[in-house]
Amino acid sequence: MMALSRADTSVLGRWWWTVDRWTLAALLSLVGFGYVMLLAASPGVAERIGASSRDMFILKQVFFLAAATAVMVSISVMPVKLVRRLALLGCIGALLMTMATLSVGVEIKGARRWLHLPGLTIQPSEFMKPCFAVVAAWLLAEGRNYGWRAYAAVGVLFFMIVGTLAKQPDMGMLMVVASVFFAQLFVVGINIFLVAGCGVVGVLGAVGAYFTMPHFRDRLNRFLDPASGDTYQVTVAMEAFGHGGLLGVGPGEGRLKAMLPDAHADFVYAVAGEEFGMMICLLILGVFGFIVLRGLLRLLGERDMFIILGATGLLTQFGLQAFINMASALHLIPTKGMTLPFISYGGSSVVAVALGAGMLLALTRRRISRAAQDEE
């Protein structure tokens, strides 16, 4: 552990004694799980997709995990004002890049969500997600001073994001963004009838997506009636959980993971279930639950509405993304291509999650006095 005195007034010293070290440790443990699951799930995937070098395939994700850790810690050191500015710039930039995917994006499985850049492919909407949560918190908090103008600004931004995601289409990302925004609206205390009206619009949007988007309709139909279509991945994933049992078959000994096309990404939780068993799966679930509950408890004594809304949005987003991934693998909800934070393979996802986690740590740092907070 770091040997820093409470009297240390350096940036690092102040950070160490104000950051939530329990949450930081839990987040770093997820990064550790990510390394382990990378070694467990990626080799077979690398061979199946014909990666030129299996070791390079693994090292690439090792680099992204290391970069994510650096991003998370670096942002957690930032003062609140700088976090807010970073989120605003990030949200605008990511929204513009997400819009660009509609015309110059890479199409995969009927959706345009990715941009090709020199040396890598990124999914800009992943970065828009945490940045929007902080920007929405700022505008909603400012609504107390500027009234309808602040609410109108956040409403316009929200519908621009929703419209762009619907055109890609990326209904899973849209649902997460909308859920985070509605949670923030609830916390800020906006008229309950307005929130209910937004909920009705959301339900009507889902019904419209069912009738106009074949991909969305097919996934829901397969969930409700497995005999209506291909449920290969979910079936194999459930077999993997059953094969692993309580304690698993052992690291590297799983055989069903070789049959899962997305074993390293969307169904990495099934690989954990087969090789490490139900106990480790429950431990992973417990870590995610601890982070969310710890963060909410951290807000109990907070009076700054921006910090309350920002942290609530980031925690809702983090917990909902983890729930969707694990519930999909367990066939509790329709399958959705959403990564398990810090554990699934994917550069954009892991760095974007680290961005949100760093913002969360920065917002929930203890501040000795209001004057010290204003100074930040």
From TrEMBL:
The chain crosses the membrane at residues 22-41, 62-80, 86-108, 120-140, 146-166, 178-211, 276-293, 305-330, 342-363. GO terms for molecular function: lipid-linked peptidoglycan transporter activity; peptidoglycan glycosyltransferase activity. Keywords: Cell cycle, Cell division, Cell shape, Glycosyltransferase, Membrane, Peptidoglycan synthesis, Transferase, Transmembrane, Transmembrane helix. InterPro entries: FtsW/RodA. Its EC number is 2.4.99.28. It is found in: Membrane. It catalyses: [GlcNAc-(1->4)-Mur2Ac(oyl-L-Ala-gamma-D-Glu-L-Lys-D-Ala-D-Ala)](n)-di-trans,octa-cis-undecaprenyl diphosphate + beta-D-GlcNAc-(1->4)-Mur2Ac(oyl-L-Ala-gamma-D-Glu-L-Lys-D-Ala-D-Ala)-di-trans,octa-cis-undecaprenyl diphosphate = [GlcNAc-(1->4)-Mur2Ac(oyl-L-Ala-gamma-D-Glu-L-Lys-D-Ala-D-Ala)](n+1)-di-trans,octa-cis-undecaprenyl diphosphate + di-trans,octa-cis-undecaprenyl diphosphate + H(+). It is an enzyme of class 2 (transferase). GO terms for cellular component: cell division site; plasma membrane. It holds the Pfam family FTSW_RODA_SPOVE. It is a multi-pass membrane protein. It comes from the Bacteria. GO terms for biological process: cell division; peptidoglycan biosynthetic process; regulation of cell shape. Belongs to the SEDS family. FtsW subfamily. PANTHER family: CELL CYCLE PROTEIN, PEPTIDOGLYCAN GLYCOSYLTRANSFERASE FTSW-RELATED. This is Probable peptidoglycan glycosyltransferase FtsW. It comes from Teichococcus wenyumeiae.
